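Most newcomers find our protein records easier to grasp once they have seen one. Sequence and backbone structure share a record, each on its own labelled line. Nothing more is needed to start thinking about how sequence determines fold. As an example, a complete record with its sequence and its structure tokens follows.
=====
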Amino acid sequence: MINIYDAVLSFKNAYPKTVGWRYRKHCEVVEKHLNLGENVEYAFIAQKNDNPINLFQTCVVALTNERILIGRKRLLFGYNLDSVTPDLFNDLKVVSNIIWGKVYIDTIKEFITLSNIDKRALPEIETVISSFMMEQKKKYPKMGNKKENI
């Protein structure tokens, strides 16, 4: 298992144009909600909004061996945590602009937008999330393929 804060720090060092603040506090939110036996395999920072001007909604996105966790510590008190399990995952969309890019995660229940990510990091993020979700979705039975015994 990798340390979430170290993974986020190495991501920020590799892709310095990514906008984010207070990494340690956001990482603590994700660490608090890890299950027993759940290991973090990849982590990065982003802004959880669709507005390139709003730079104050930093979150940590952690890909574990079971799900995607998106944690965000509020400034004064409390926090927000989103969990995307492979059975709820629908689609992933990546958009690259001049400086930053966006990652859209479409789930059954909501549409998550992660923005202000260094555009050089987008292929790496897409590869890691897509390959993980494709592997995990193979483990879930398909709804329309039930064979009835006659």
Remarks:
- Helices lie at 4-14, 23-32, 122-137.
